[in-house]
Every structure is written in structure tokens, then in C-alpha cells.
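Protocol step 4 of 6: structure prediction from sequence.
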Amino acid sequence: MGTVESESHSNVPYNRIGEFHSSDSLESGDPQHRSDSETQSVHNQVSDNRKRSSHTSTSDCELISEPAMDEVEADEIISAADGFGTATRTQSATNKQQVYGKNSTTTRTAQQQQPKMSKKLLLVNLLANFLMFAIAGFITYHCFNKATVLFSWHPSLMSIGYFILMSQAVLTLSGANLLTYRKHQKTRVFVHWILQALAGILITIASVCIFLNKVRMGKAHYQTVHAIVGLITVILTLLSIAGGIFTKYGYQLRHLVRPINSKIMHGIAGVVTYIMGSVTIGLGVYSAWFQEDNDGHVRLALLIGIIAVTLYVIINPIAATISRTKTALRSTL
């Protein structure tokens, strides 16, 4: 404490010293006044303190790359403390260590808060992906097992488009996809519309194939429940894709529809379309064409797998749509 007090008295601003003595008092040798040499000593000491402070600040800036605001404040405290004694410097160093420790803890906490998929959810995701590819693969194999004809491309492309590409697209956007759940939101949106675009292309090709096959065979169109539901599903799919494009540019089109409302409508349309696609595939499994080579146990197993995958895919979009609807209602009322 004695060191701090003596230095604090010696650091009196030098422009105030000359106000209290005149040349007469200095010549008289009055012991109550400072001599010119003492005044110069004060000047030198203040200058040295400033140089030390500047040097410490520069050294800290060189050692710490891209410091956070708290770290900069800690460095400023330490550099300023050089003019006030060892005790104050020690306390400032302790403060700096506390600041750095706080920042390190914050960084570790942020790293720990990165999205992680639990073991149960991981297993469910793997099982759902297995069922998607197994069911679509089985249907595709059944299409080309005997012969490759124009009709063969209809069920195979439909099952791949709806049950693989569209399923992965929905899971990617909802954050439940094993391959993309850690990706940034913009990346997931990009992957979502790429997969949906590919699904739309395959579904369109499959629709054209069955239409041309009916024309080639001379048969009437849309005579079964499967065909009627399939037609409605394809129309909803194209409308849902168009709604997705509108939603993607929702901010630019906010003068027409609020962005949150466009997301709600796209979410509802997407869920309904996906359910309709699953129903169409289920009806196809129980069609006369599929029953020729597969017994009831195989069809039942496929139907259970289709229902399980559908429930897993739509649960997150439904929850997100409900949450957005509540938010929109609160902001409106």
C-alpha cells in the first residue's frame, strides 16, 4: 500500500505544478517549493509511465489475435495498471485470467450446444432410411424382374421420387436427416429444393409413362382408385413445388403474402402431398398388377413399412407448422 500511495502523489499533472511557484520563490530557496530539477524529474517520470503503458498495450495486442471485447478491456486494465504499482498489476492480472476463463467456458458451452442426434433418434433415422430404400428397391426390382417395358418406369420412378427423394427432402428441411442435421439452415434449404426438384422431374416422367402406356394399350384413363388418387397427388405435388418457390422468395414477395403465412401454407401443402403420395404407393402395392407375384404377407409388410416411414417423416413438419400458426395468430390478434 505504501508503494501505491507514494506513486499516486508523484503522478500530479505537471502543468499544475508551475501554477504554485514564481521565479522569486525559487530564487529564495523556499523549502516549500520544488526546484527546477525536481519539476524536470516529475516530467520524466510521467513520460516513462506513458511509454511503459504504451509498450504494454502494444505487446498485448501483438500476443492476442482477434481479441474479444472482454479480453480487450482486460488488456487495457493491465496496461493502465503499470503506473499504479505492483499490487494493482497483480489484481488486474487476476481479473484478466478470470475474463479469459469466462470466455473459455463460454466457448466450451457453445461447442457443447451444437446439435447432436441421440442414440435412439439415430437408430430410428437409420431404420427409416433402410425402409425407404428397401421398399423403393423392392418395387423397382419387381418392375424390371420379368421384362423392361414402358409401364415398368411408372411404379419405379414414382416410388423413388416420392419415397426416397421427397422423404429425404422433408427430413432435410426439418433437421431430422442424418446427413444434414448439422448443416446450416441455408444449406439445408438448398438441399431441400434440389431434392424436391429431382423428385418433381421423376414424378412427371412417371406420369407421362403411364399415360403413354394407356394410349399404347388402348385402355381408358383413371378408372381405378389408385389412378384417381395418383392424379390428385401429382397435381398437389406440382402445386406444392410451386408454393415452395414462392416461399423461397417470400421476403421479396412479402407485399403479396406475409413470409410466415407462405411458410404455413407450404408446410400444410407439403404434408398433405406427402401423405397422398404414400397412400398412392400403398394402393399400388394392393393393385392387381402387384398381387400377381406377391402374397398377402409381403403386401402387408410393405404397407406397414410405408405407414411407419410416413409417420416419421411428417411429424416434424406438422409440429413446425403448428408452431408457426400460433406465432402468426399471436402477431395478428
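Step 5 (inspection) to follow. The chain has twelve helices and no strands.
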